[in-house]
Structure formats: structure tokens, C-alpha cells
Design goal:
The chain has five helices and no strands. The chain has helices at about 10-35, 40-65, 70-85, 90-95, 95-115. α1 runs antiparallel to α2 and α1 packs parallel to α3. It is elongated.
Length: about 130
């Protein structure tokens, strides 16, 4: 019996959707904790690590869908609401390490997602066609 780690091609879209949902929930919890209750460098670093884990899970889901699932960008848009809303209290947010770390992580994730190329199929055509 062969051991398979990745789901079959038919199940990849569904599995990636579930990964996006789980990453969104973890990222939202990290955003709430980072902007509302994290005090001090150690707590901010811990919450940024959780957000980085959620971003990594998002990337796995996006890569698993072969860069075809644009629903993952809804997750990034929802995550970006946190730093944008924090800008309403500009004097407070520029002194928070979590604000700068979350902006960096989300910018890096968007740049990676926009520069990613889909894998070519067996016939040499891209899966987007």
C-alpha cells in the first residue's frame, strides 16, 4: 500500500479551501491578540510567530491549489483590515512592533503570491486555461 501525503488532484481544491479557512481563523486570532492584548516585545514576538504560521499555512493552501484558488486573496484582504483599522489610532500603532511585523508579513505574502507561477501541465499548458 503506497503512502500518499498529498491529496489526489480532484481533492486538492477542497483541501486548499479548508486550509484557507483554518489559516484565516488562526490569523484572525493572532491579529486580535496582537492589536488588543499583546504588551511587550515577548508577547508581540509570540503573536507574530502565530501570524507567520498562519501565513505559512495560507501559502501551503495556495501552492496546493496550484496557484489557481483566488479565494485565498479574500483571506489576505480580511487580514489587511487589522493594520488598516489600527491606522485610525496612528500615534499608538506606529509604536507597536506587532503593527510593523504584521504589515511586513502580509506584504511579503502578497508579493510571493503575485510573483508565483503555476506549474505546467503534462501537455505544456497552464492550469488556468
Amino acid at each position: 500500500m503506497p503512502l500518499t501525503v498529498l491529496p489526489s488532484k480532484g481533492d486538492r481544491f477542497r483541501v486548499s479551501a479548508w486550509i484557507f479557512i483554518i489559516a484565516w481563523l488562526i490569523g484572525n486570532l493572532a491579529m486580535i491578540a496582537g492589536f488588543e492584548s499583546a504588551e511587550g516585545f515577548l508577547q508581540n514576538a509570540l503573536v507574530l510567530g502565530i501570524l507567520a504560521t498562519a501565513c505559512g499555512a495560507w501559502w501551503v493552501g495556495y501552492k496546493l491549489s496550484n496557484f489557481r484558488d483566488h479565494g485565498g486573496f479574500v483571506v489576505i484582504a480580511l487580514w489587511l483590515l487589522g493594520p488598516i483599522i489600527a491606522l485610525l489610532d496612528f500615534q499608538q500603532c506606529i509604536r507597536t512592533p506587532f503593527f510593523w511585523g504584521s504589515v511586513f508579513l502580509l506584504s511579503l505574502l502578497v508579493a510571493l503570491a503575485l510573483s508565483a507561477k503555476p506549474l505546467r501541465g503534462a501537455a505544456g499548458e497552464t492550469p488556468l486555461k
